[in-house]
Amino acid sequence: MVLVKTRNLLKCYPMGLRTLTALRKINLEFQRGEFCGLIGPSGSGKTTLLNIIGSLDVPSQGSVTVLDKKIEELSHVEAARLRRNHIGFIFQTYNLLPLYTAYENVEFPLLLIDMPEAKRKKKVMDALDWLGIADKAESRPAQLSGGESQRVAVARAIVKLPDLVLADEPTANLDAENSFNILEMMVKLNQELNTTFIFATHDEKVIRYLRRKIHLVDGQVVKDEIVN
Fold it and tell me: Structure pTM?
């Protein structure tokens, strides 16, 4: 099943009297259950493409379809509903709410979808258990290591069992051991839940795990390879 499709995607930003073209004629399809990455140096368009797929931005021209919804045609409310119900995000800087516990940070996406408390509690604890941090449920971000914080961020991204997880440089602030642990867990989640993972990365630790590598240079796809 095709989960994401882009057609002749173009993204431009005004820069004073000039125009910066961040993405040029991107044509891609992502199937359900893929574990793939957008690879390239800083400024190659990786994050821009990830943001458009996640309905955080819209194309200047062309079309992006996510779960049969055309991103460029969605209202702000419809885009928020798509993110809320179907997409999980993992960020380089964790983006945890500092005053909330690990449990409360993971619970937050479920509070937006009107779920009964008992079911919500089970899903949160299941997600924390999957990531091996159930014992940190009552800890606040300041009490967590970088690896633990990123595990909480991953748990928050997958707690609602999304169709799609978008991860923007998720290991950039982690050492090799924590990166390995986080990536192993994401591979396991991908295999067990059939969730599609799309990374934006130039981290070799992540690249080694990808089953599909999409290379971007100056906003263009220069290589799209399947890895056995």
Answer: 0.93
Q: Which helix (H) or strand (E) holds 55?
A: none
Dihedral angle of Cα 170, 175, 176, 178, to the nearest 10 degrees = -70
CB neighbour list of residue 82: distance below 8 Å, 6 or more residues apart? 55, 66, 67, 69, 74
Q: How many CB atoms lie within 10 A of CB 4?
A: 22
Residue range 8-52, pLDDT digits in tens: 999 999 888 899 999 999 999 999 999 999 999 989 999 999 999
The answer to whether 38 and 50 are in contact (CB under 8 A) is yes
Those residues with Cβ within 8 angstroms of residue 142's Cβ, 6 or more apart along the chain or in another chain: 98
Give the C-alpha separation, 27 to 62, whole Å.
9
Report the candidate in 71, 108, 68 with the shortest Cα–Cα distance to residue 88: 108
Give the mean model confidence (pLDDT) for residues 154-178.
91
CATH code that applies to domain 2-226: 3.40.50.300
Structural domain spans, the chain: 2-226
